Amino acid sequence: xxxxxxxxxxxxxxxxxxxxxxxxxxxxxxxxxxxxxxxxxxxxxxxxxxxxxxxxxxxxxxxxxxxxxxxxxxxxxxxxxxxxxxxxxxxxxxxxxxxxxxxxxxxxxxxxxxxxxxxxxxxxxxxxxxxxxxxxxxxxxxxxxxxxxxxxxxxxxxxxxxxxxxxxxxxxxxxxxxxxxxxxxxxxxxxxxxxxxxxxxxxxxxxxxxxxxxxxxxxxxxxxxxxxxxxxxxxxxxxxxxxxxxxxxxxxxxxxxxxxxxxxxxxxxxxxxxxxxxxxxxxxxxxxxxxxxxxxxxxxxxxx
Length: 304
Ligand SMILES: [Zn+2]
Fold this sequence. Notes:
The protein is an alpha/beta fold.
């Protein structure tokens, strides 16, 4: 079986190169009206770290407050300065995204916005690093519009990587904040039961339909051609799906066996994630056959 090249796998080599160039703390304005503060939390899945964005000028919105690291929280607050904060938007509740919302809200008085917390039943199904205490002040639904004028922001529910994942789109500027759904440096991890490949692909379609001009992910560099990147990611998932289905046709059904068949030069720390992604593709085979997913979860949304 031909092996896929590794340009989409979270490569430790790519991550290392990005970290070597990274400027941590307040990077400054990266697009008109958008400032970046980079958290120093580099790990396998975060590339150089988490991107926290300040959006708008006065007031500012904060997108993805990041990990609860005092140095990062202070850097965000210093970047905000005296400006009022309109709100704190959380893409999802992995530990590298949401925990700093609380200390930043305490200091600024801003409200926290997000899709909603996950029930204990759902949290008990995973050992992913999830923020168990997250509770938005204002629960967002798909298509919810917040803010006004040039910096009005549309919230989009985009499950697939995570059940309560939201992307944020600024229609007047054509800027899409894609969270972890589409990253700037590798493909994102889709691991059942909280990750779901069918949901991932339909959320990808939703992001594509926006026709954004600039995509700012929560990890990695800005994406100047969002349509091309979304297309690459979809093609990559289709190739993996085909590889997994070829393995199933040969009688392989164990994710660890399939990983050894189709991944090349996989870093040891990524083996479990790769097995999880293969499990997501195996589940997608079931959906194609039966129309049913074994583990699809509907995120519970906090009441308005
Ligand atoms: Zn995530």
